[in-house]
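An instance follows:
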Amino acid sequence: MEQDYTIRTMTGAEVEEAVGWAAAEGWNPGASDAGCFTSVDPEGFIGGFIDGRMIASISVINYDAGFSFLGFYIVHPDFRGKGYGFTLWKAGMAHAGERIVGLDGVVAEQENYKRSGFDFAYRNIRFGGVPKALVVEDMAFLKPLTVPSDELLAYDRKLFPAPRERFLEAWISAPGHTGFAAMREGVLVGYAVVRPCRAGAKIGPLFADDPAVARQLAKAAIDTAGDGEVFLDTPEPNGEAVALARALGLEPVFETARMYRGAAPGVDLERVYGVTTFELG
């Protein structure tokens, strides 16, 4: 390893560069992801540099005093196998401190993550393709999703391991993002956000109390996305989520291993039909 390897917090432009690296790896990030991601914990985006050039990236985003999520762990191909990534990994984990840390890692790296103290929880499967027309029953009333209300934040908190008001404010209002809330008898029973990506569009999150609500939210998101490919990241333990993706005519295109350092958070996966993002959980 070269002696002038330095590690520091990324600038906004460097976060955009890391998002570009993720695109090159085939992760298909959203068009406005960088700004949304840094809304939570800007100091959690950490880069490794040689002579001022960023050659490695990691994000370890601290949501609160108890939970972090790790992503963007990428080393430039020219510098792999030389120890730069592991040095940066240690800096990222130091940023997390004693928090529980989650990640969505490529399956081939599971054993490496296990050696760093992470335990496998379940698989997330990315389904993608041009969706079929979806017929839904009118079982919920959809309305536009605007600023996060107390009701939305309380609903989201049951389905994500930490409070994330700042993230949701950025996520819902980002350019190109469109959200829908599903109401039944005046009570929130699900919500979804769809956003443009480097290729096609992604739906995430897609949270719903039951399959009927999930189908209606998915239809609204797909209708908004227009023609072209749509991607939905489903937790494999939720069989109804996988069934919805297949009903849409989507096919598996990628998968990750959801892993945690520390006790896996108690999240109701039966209501998680689409993961928000593999980078931030």
User: Anything to note?
Assistant: The chain has a mean pLDDT of 94. The first strand starts at residue 5 and ends at 9. The two ends are 32 Å apart (CA to CA). The CA atoms of residues 77 and 105 lie 18 Å apart.
